[in-house]
Amino acid sequence: MTIDDQTRRRTTKTGLTALDRDRACPGYTLYSPMNGPGDVYLLNLDGEEVHHWAMPDPPGLYGYLLPNGNLFYGGKLRDEMWDRFPSWKRFKGGVMMEVDWDGNVVWEHRDQDHHHDARRTEPGGAIYLTVELMSETLAAKVKGGNPITGEDGMWADVIVEVDASGKRIWEWHAAEHLDPERDTITFNDSRDEWSHGNTVAPLPDGRVMFSFRNISTVGIIDKVSGEIVWRLGGEVLAQQHDPSLLPNGNVLVYDNGSHSGQHPLPSPGWSRWKPAPTRSCGNTSITRPTTSSAPTYPGPAGCPTATLSSLKECLDGCFRSRLKATLSGSTSTPTTTKTPRTRW
User: Fold this and answer.
1) Pairing of strands 241-245, 59-65
2) For every residue of 237-291, which 3-state class applies, written as one string?
3) 211 near 199, Cβ under 8 Å?
4) Is the distance from CB of 235 to CB of 221 less than 8 angstroms?
5) Which helix (H) or strand (E) holds 128?
6) How does pLDDT run across 181-235, given as a tens digit for each residue?
């Protein structure tokens, strides 16, 4: 189809608005309206609905299509923790579930502290983000943020791993590993949260990747020592989302570019980094298209191989639940490849 290069005109339309079939990444796209009841849609390259799941809870927030073709979905539960702090209800979760093609629940785990992201693990459990209330003493040492906020306390992330039975087998507390002097909160963010995790991803060799938006930092944790063995911070990033490890060993990050300490105006774009074997950052290739603007949520991820699907932004008022499909096949039940899951 002919692509309208006028961004504003194109993005105010609905349905398929652009397709260059020779250059578009083949595959499927999954998304869920952020404020919807839990509808998840699988679309083909022509924008046609291939499949639909009606989940029992609204998205809270992310989900993935697994190698076995099942959907792993984070749901938002309105529970007694709903008003924990002002922004909590926007990104809280509470339940993680794997469902089959017909929506039957294969596995489920509930945690009232869960938010944003969760990943299925190879042994059959999950690793996910939670929060905990920090001590007043430590919170007072954390620099940055809006000084008239946080009067009811400051929260920090805890990364939790459970086994197939739901038993907690590993956890990592951000407040024990971040530095109040170095890891400062973005100047106009609320002091209700120190880290505000938005991504957690298990990596090979017992490592875990995280993204902490409020301190503009992506890092890799060694699970045995608990140490952050690689990190990239606000010297380059600004309130980023969606880091993923590519097959070539690089890390792809969507840099929202908002409230940057290095740029006077929002400057979103995609960055590819080669992690060095030390704590310092490695080589980079940064693209900042002038037509991209996503101050809160990330833009489309990269397409490192022909079997990874592209990700597409929803219209304003709609949240693409960032479900990455590693699919190839037809409009019938798709079969997944064994390509390493990077990140939808």
Assistant:
1) unpaired
2) CCCCEEEEECCCCCEEEEECCCCCCCCCCCCCEEEEECCCCCCCCCCEEEECCCC
3) yes
4) no
5) strand 126-133
6) 999 999 889 999 999 999 999 999 999 999 999 999 999 999 999 999 999 999 8
Give the type of residue at 273.
W
pTM score: 0.81
Return d(Cα 228, Cα 9) in angstroms, integer.
44
Angle ∠(251,266,202) on CA atoms, nearest 5: 25
Residue 312: name the closest of 46, 35, 8 by CA.
46
Residue 72: HSE in the Cβ half-sphere, 13 Å Cα cutoff:
21
The predicted-structure confidence for 81-108, as pLDDT tens digits, reads as follows 999 999 999 999 999 999 999 999 999 9
Please list, in sequence order, all residues whose beta carbon lies within 8 angstroms of the beta carbon of residue 98, skipping any fewer than 6 positions away: 66, 70, 71, 72, 73, 105, 106, 107, 108, 120
Say how far apart CA 307 and CA 337 lie, in whole Å: 7
CATH top class, domain 75-308: mainly beta
Quick one: which of 297, 293, 234, 229 has its CA closest to 260?
234
For residue 117, list its beta bridge partners: none
* Spatial separation of the C-alpha atoms in residues 324 and 321, rounded to whole Å: 9
Domain boundary assignment for the chain: 75-308
Number of H helices and number of E strands within the chain? 3, 23
Residue type, 333: T
